[in-house]
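name: query_chain
kind: protein
chains: 1
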Amino acid sequence: MVTDKKTTTIVAGTVFTITESDYSDYCVEGVFRAVKDFVPDDLLDQWLAANPRERERYRFDAPSFLAWVARQGVFERVDSVNWHLGSYGTGISEVRIFDDPPQ
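structure:
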């Protein structure tokens, strides 16, 4: 079951993924561990207050936002692999290694 909560605290020690977009644009930015408790929406609100144009449709710069969040020291990258089970029912097994943390 997936639960979407507008205000959620990610507690220190929690391992989580950051994803964005939908359908063919969907991507996993990586796997991370919270270094300290934080509320994602609070960070987004701070970013948008400093970058108001990014509130407009198609203007949100996710890579810049994530780089800024990384510099806040709230999470660290966790080495991980992705086990991909194919696309559109192909059932092809493939392990992918992600090794490029946000800058």
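note: The mean pLDDT is 82.
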